[in-house]
Amino acid sequence: MFDTISSALPRRGGIACLLLGALTVAAALLEAPYALADGTGSAATPDPAPAAPSSLGFRGPGTAIVVLGYGLFPDGAMRPELIARLHAGFAQALLAPASPIIVTGGNPRGGVTEAQAMAQWLIRHGIPPDRVHLEPDASSTAENAGESARIMRDIGARDAVVITSTDHLDRAVGDFLDAGVEVVGTVTPDQVPLLAAPFGSIA
User: Which residues sit opposite 187 in a β-bridge?
Assistant: First the structure.
């Protein structure tokens, strides 16, 4: 399936784009707590009420990046909330280039499942097709967790960074723990530095 997708993708400059993206995300992480007060380059006081700390960062090949699906529009297009989750997963993927990525979600609309739509988006943005693993059958968070756990066993991943929306995070982590998956990190869309957004901005 991915052979057809990947053959239609532009290959030239893909690695350079990913490297540039990773450097930009890393720079954004270092600078995220600060804003420039003026043109002199001095740092302003950090925001007194920052977002909850993110687990966005470097991981090895034993840690899967699991992006949870979200309902599609009737024609199979992705809703903004799902694209926001993909932005977060994409940023984590740039910073952890050895980690496999699992996209999980069934609920087909317009002949496309959530997982298929997410995989196509990631590949279109330069993620190698063989790095993306689809779970296209789950119709609930508990099923997302159980099916992701099965894929993780198959590919030799021992733990996971879970990517989902903030208001869904507690339930998702609980379901993954119940499925026997060690959750070593979580990332939500609101934890991704703004400087990383251009690398995942095209729907």
Answer: 163
